[in-house]
Write a structure and sequence with these properties.
Order of helices and strands: EHEHHEHHEEHEEEEEEHHEHEEEEEEE
Structural class: alpha/beta
Helix content: 10-25%
Distance between the termini: 19 Å
Strand content: 15-25%
Radius of gyration: 23 Å
Shape: elongated
CATH topology of the largest domain: paralog of FGE (formylglycine-generating enzyme)
CATH class of the largest domain: Alpha Beta
Number of strands: 19
């Protein structure tokens, strides 16, 4: 869930930030606003909670009142252990837009701010009175709404460059049943236990990949493999080799300082077909029976990829989209017989890697959750792309 993160100092703007949080929740929904007094549970680790909230944030509001820069609070902002400083620094590192709200005060000069926070003087912010918050209601909603109108993908500017970070869904540690009895290479069914991870809600799009190409102009663009929907930014990028997918993940990791990577095939299958609530495996992401309206396969006769997320009714139990049809997706797993084993030497290139998911060109049996094929890492075609994952701490 994309969040609006509200940062404030308890000894400065407690009551005004509470009113702002209330306004935001009325308009955008209770579960989309992180304000510690109304979000944290007793006994919850605060630093872990803010890290998770900022991980999912689309925008941060920083409440700066008359006491924010008083000597005792200024000294706190100089300490790396200060929670307010941690919040703002983490948002800045992750490229999250920061909107300062100046309450009962003017915009501080750069000289009034600690060196690491002088950028706040240049941020376009909101000035309001603590007794007139509701009078600036529309200004606040418009400022936040500008970052939530298209909250699936976030364009972010990091110190190392610009990129688009995809929305992710967290999959917590669990064990699941992998494989099926339908094909020899899907046998035997077996139990696999996974560590927590986050999976991109959608495959990597043309828009995301184009930023990678702009940043790496000497990198070979798939122009010789161009197909007429390649320029549509929300279509999944295709004609991508395994090496290119891996390079993209490495580049995104460098830009964001976050551990992006390709999914293992076990992670892919769990996210696509495991129903954690019922502790059961599904044949397709939505259930046991194939329904052509829930995906883009040969049965639909669309004859090309479609925008990611267009078949919203075809999501998996975890809410992951486009796991059946549209495009095949590269994984990090070498193509080997079952039972599944995590890659032992991921730095070594395998002669063949697993692809999953089926595509617009292929019939429904290929879009089953357990269907697996193997391709050379240099292979590409106009129905093959990829999806990313992130490591999560336990």
């Amino acid at each position: 869930m994309t969040l609006i993160f509200l940062s404030y100092r308890h000894t400065d703007t407690m009551s005004t930030s509470a009113e702002i949080a209330s306004i935001l929740r009325e308009h955008f929904g209770q579960d989309r606003v992180f304000w510690d007094q109304g979000t944290l549970k007793y006994g919850q680790n605060y630093l872990e909670a803010i890290d998770q909230a900022i991980f999912n944030a689309a925008v941060m509001l920083v409440c700066i009142g008359p006491a924010w820069l008083l000597p005792e609070n200024y000294q706190k902002l100089l300490s790396p252990d200060d929670v307010v400083l941690k919040e703002i620094t983490l948002a800045q590192q992750r490229g999250i837009p920061i909107i300062p709200i100046f309450i009962d005060r003017n915009v501080p000069t750069p000289q009034e701010l600690p060196p690491s926070l002088q950028f706040l003087n240049l941020q376009h912010g909101i000035i309001l009175s603590s007794i007139g918050v509701r009078e600036r209601l529309q200004t606040i909603l418009d400022a936040v709404g500008a970052y939530l109108d298209d909250d699936e993908f976030q364009f972010r500017q990091f110190p190392a460059g610009a990129c688009v970070t995809p929305p992710v869904i967290r999959i917590w540690a669990d064990q699941f049943t992998m494989g099926s009895d339908e094909r020899n290479n899907e046998q035997p069914k077996h139990t696999v236990k996974l560590s927590p991870f986050a999976i991109a809600k959608f495959p990597v799009t043309v828009g995301e990949y184009n930023l990678f190409l702009r940043a790496n102009r000497n990198f070979s663009r798939p122009t010789t493999r161009t197909i007429n929907w390649l320029q549509k930014s929300k279509h999944p990028v295709v004609n991508i080799t395994w090496q290119e997918a891996s390079l993209y993940a490495s580049w995104l990791s460098f830009i964001t300082s976050q551990p992006w990577r390709l999914l293992t095939e076990a992670e892919w299958e769990m996210a696509a077909g495991w129903d954690a609530h019922n502790h059961s495996a599904r044949r397709y992401p939505w259930g046991e029976n194939f329904i052509s309206s829930k995906c883009n396969t040969a049965e639909g006769k669309i004859n090309q990829p479609i925008e990611v997320g267009k078949n919203s009714n075809g999501a998996s139990a975890f809410g992951v989209m486009d796991m059946a049809g549209n495009i095949w997706e590269w994984t990090a797993s070498p193509y080997l017989p079952y039972p599944y084993q995590p890659p032992l030497h991921p730095e070594q290139i395998s002669p063949s890697y697993v692809v999953r998911g089926g595509s617009w060109r292929h019939p429904s049996p290929d879009s089953r959750v357990t269907r697996r094929l193997g391709h050379s890492p240099s292979h590409f075609n106009n129905s093959l792309g990829f999806r990313l994952a992130l490591n999560l701490n336990n």
